[in-house]
Each structure stands twice: as C-alpha cells, then as structure tokens.
Design goal:
single chain; about 500 residues; 21 helices; globular
Length: about 500
C-alpha cells in the first residue's frame, strides 16, 4: 500500500503540474512539494514490514497489464530496494525544495523522473523493469535540453544528445535479452523465473549465459557509468540544472549498479564469474582514472562527476568480488553515495546560485563569510572521501574486504583511490573556502537551503556510526543473491579427477 503511494502520488503531481496547474506557479510548486513529501513519508512507512522479513518481496501490486505476451504490473520491495526507494524519494523532495525555477513543467518533469526511478527499484516484472528503466530518459532529456546551462565548450543540447545515444543504445540489447528469457521461461515475472531456477526447470547453458549477460551488463555499465562507458557523464552532470544534478548524481548511477546486483548475478552466474576478472579491472580503472581526472578539474560539478565515476567503480568492484562483504559494501555504498553526492550537488547548486558559475576560480575565502555553507560542505566532502565515522567509510571498508578475498591486488589498487579522493576533495575545498577573501559579499545558507541539506548531513553521520540501522536487511538479501547465483551454475569435473573415479 505505501509503495503504491510512493510510486503513484508523484505521478499524480506530474499530471497536475502539466495540466491543471500549468499556469499557477506557486500552487504547482506547493503541489509538487506536497506529493514528493508524502511519497517520502510513504517510503519510510514501508520500513517496518520489510524489516520483518527482508528477503521476502513485500508485494504492493500485481495485476495483468498486457494479456499476451503476459506482462504484469508487478511492484514490491525487499531489503535491497527499500533504502534505495527511500533515498530516491528523499533526494527528489530535496531537489524540488531547492528548485529556484517554479516553472510547473520543470517541477512536473522532476516528479516523473522520481516515478521512473522508484519504478526501477520496485519492478518485479522484467518487461516492466525495462519500461521504467527507459522512462527515466524522458524527463531527463526535457530537463537537460530545455533548462540545462552551457558550460565551457559543452552545450546542454550536445550533452543531452550524448546522454540519450549512450543510454538508449545500451538498453536496446537488454530488451533483446529480456525477450529471450521470456521465450525460454514463458514469463517476464522475475520471482517466477528465480523459482524455476531453484526447481531446476529453467537453466541457461554457459553458451546462452554469456551473450545474455553481456547485453544486460552493457545497459547497466552505461547507466552506472563504468569506464569506458562514461563519456556522457561529466557533460551531463555539468550542464544539468542543479535540481536535476542532485537526482542524476545521487540516483541515476544506482540504476546500473542495482541491475548488476539484482539480475546479473542470479541469472547469469557462469558468465558473471567468467567475466569478473576483466570487469574488476574496469572497476579499478574507473576508480583510479576518475580520481586522477577529478584532481585537475577546474569546475566543481565536473569534479564531482569524475568523483562519482571513481566511487561507482568501488560499487562494481564489490559486486563482482562474489563475497558477502563485497556485496554488503556495494549495497550500502549505493545508499551512502546517493546521500553524500546528492548533498555535494545541493551545495554546488548553492554556490552556483551565488556566483552564476561553478568554476573553482570564481570562489575563494568563503569560509569567513559563509560559515554554515563551509561547515556543511566540509562534512559532505569528508564523508565522500571515506573519513571514519562518516557513511562512505563503512561501504568502502566492506568493499575493500570483499575485493581482498577476490584478489589482494584489487584491494590495494582500490585503496589508492580512497587516498586520491581525499586529495581532490580537500584541494577543491581549500581553493573554494579558504585563502584570500572574495571581493564581494556572499550570502550564507538560507533557511530553505539549510532545511534541504540538514537531513543529508545527519544521515552521513548516522549511517557512519550506526550502520546496523541499515545494513542487516541488505545483507540478508545479498546472502540470498549469493545462494541464487549458485543454482544456475554448471559444474565441471576436472579430467584427472574423473579418470581416478572411473579407475576405482
């Protein structure tokens, strides 16, 4: 019931802002804020039910949508999707709260983007998952194309086209793979397919798994993005209007990492394990490349974009460690990264609002004039760099543990990325908030801006010192995923062992 409210109330807000309220700016803003706020409260109301049995999908709705092929509008939540849905509704609420544009159409597209992301995290039908996965493109394209800001040599239109081409091309192959799975299993119902795997009535040979895995992987790798599929990211994050940047940076990449964990490991375990070596190699490249490029960025948003590339590489590394610590770290880091990066983009939007630019050279010495802005920015930067007692530390530590089990070289290389993250974030902070005072006065956080960033700062601290409030439900599902990933594996007996058995 509560999931229905979290999914459909923003859709009602979208329709209202696009029709009845399209000329009433203040009323549309109030309606958008109310629908996003109630959706967030509904996502919190889901917590008790899911925590009672985190591995069971709490089904909110399952109705026939299309008779043939049989497609169901089936949504539900478990311990893996619960906190991602909550993070989505929270960041969407904050994005609307901080929107300086009271354009009803702008607010409507933000609400539709929330619908698409919540739908991805709650879909229990593979075709429905694909529909919501693609739905996120529509509002993003309108928001970037119509409200985006040109940055340096990059225009918002060019960034929009690049984003669309990359993400849509990857998704087409995933649709073909989903169709093949339907022909093989006779259903799009994901839980039904997993039950067939468990019963042994649905099996994919290694030859079948590889192309299907690669089709899913490419779609998720582009959306994450993972190196070298990241070319759209920096331009999109830099030119996107600040409220969209909060949602894109905080949530868009999680659609890819969630898909890798939710679908790729249980459905294609042979292929996933066979490809784990080079995927972990790409994850390490993303961690190091993203960090090194972030160091030399002159623009705060662009720096945060490459920072996200690096941090999302950590999540992929944890997933393909095939160790419970790595999976737990990846799942926890998805939520932590949403909070920290979303918070940094909120504050970057505040700076852009003050100066009309996010170029680091436009700032300097803000700490003496904007103490609250400087303090919150420092906490968010330290959280993003993995400081102990703040949230990212927990996820990164677990990921490094899991990576060490997969190969100590992975953990050693990834640890360098942790050090580099402190370098580029603290150097950016020094140039922006310390040093000579700016020539003109700069306003500190307003009450509205403080209200937007306060819950994120509190979560960075709470998730850092009390991970037990969040991690157990995710870990229970990760244990189940690891078990499921062994059900469709074809075991091979080595020739010498087989000969010895026959010899006896």
């Amino acid at each position: 019931m509560y999931l229905l409210v979290a999914l459909f109330l923003p859709l009602v807000g979208f329709l209202a802002c696009m029709t009845l309220l399209r000329k009433a700016r203040q009323t549309a803003y109030t309606a958008a804020l109310a629908s996003a706020g109630i959706a967030f409260l509904a996502s919190l109301a889901m917590v008790p039910e899911v925590m009672q049995n985190p591995t069971r999908v709490s089904q909110a709705l399952a109705v026939n949508w299309i008779p043939y092929p049989p497609i169901h509008f089936s949504i539900g939540a478990d311990g893996l999707s619960l906190w991602l849905i909550a993070a989505t509704t929270l960041l969407s609420l904050i994005a609307i709260l901080t929107a300086s544009k009271r354009d009803p159409q702008f607010l409507a597209w933000l609400l539709l983007l929330e619908v698409g992301i919540v739908g991805v995290f709650s879909s229990q039908d593979l075709f429905l998952f694909f529909v919501f996965f693609e739905l996120t493109l529509v509002p993003t394209l309108f928001l970037m194309g119509q409200y985006g800001k040109d940055s340096g040599k990059t225009t918002s239109n060019a960034a929009t086209i690049k984003f669309f081409v990359y993400t849509f091309a990857g998704s087409v192959l995933m649709l073909a793979a989903i169709t093949y799975l339907f022909l093989k299993a006779g259903t799009f119902d994901y839980q039904n397919i997993l039950l067939q795997v468990q019963a042994g009535s649905f099996r994919l040979s290694p030859a079948e798994q590889m192309p299907l895995f690669l089709a899913f992987f490419l779609a998720f790798a582009v959306k994450t993005p993972l190196f070298p599929f990241h070319a759209w990211q920096a331009d999109a994050y830099t030119t996107a209007p600040s409220p969209l940047g909060i949602v894109m940076a905080g949530l868009m990449g999680k659609l890819g990492t969630y898909g890798l964990l939710r679908f790729c490991l249980p459905l294609f375990p042979n292929a996933a394990r066979e490809c784990a070596g080079w995927i972990n190699g790409l994850a390490i490249l993303a961690i190091l490349y993203g960090a090194l490029v972030a160091i030399v960025q002159p623009n705060i948003k662009r720096l945060l974009a490459f920072s996200s590339l690096s941090h999302l590489g950590f999540i992929v590394l944890g997933i393909f460690s095939f160790h419970i610590n790595g999976l737990d770290g990846a799942a926890y880091q998805m939520v932590c990264h949403a909070i920290t990066t979303g918070g940094l983009f909120v504050l970057a939007g505040v700076l852009e609002e003050r100066k009309g630019s996010c170029e680091i050279s436009a700032f300097g010495g803000l700490a003496s004039r904007t103490p609250w802005l400087a303090t919150t920015f420092l906490v968010a930067a330290l959280a993003s760099s993995g400081l102990p007692s703040l949230n990212n530390f927990v996820g990164e530590y677990l990921i490094l543990q899991g990576a060490a089990f997969a190969g100590f070289a992975y953990a050693a290389a990834a640890a360098v990325g942790v050090i580099l993250s402190a370098v580029y974030l603290l150097w950016m902070y020094q140039r922006t908030f310390l040093g000579p005072n700016p020539a003109e006065d700069t306003k500190d956080l307003s009450n509205q801006e403080a209200l937007a960033i306060a819950p994120l700062i509190l979560l960075m601290i709470w998730m850092g010192v009390n991970s037990g409030s969040f991690l157990p439900v995710q870990s229970a599902v990760n244990q189940k995923i690891l078990q499921q990933s062994k059900m469709n594996v074809e075991f091979r007996v080595a020739a010498p062992v087989a000969e010895a058995i026959h010899g006896n």
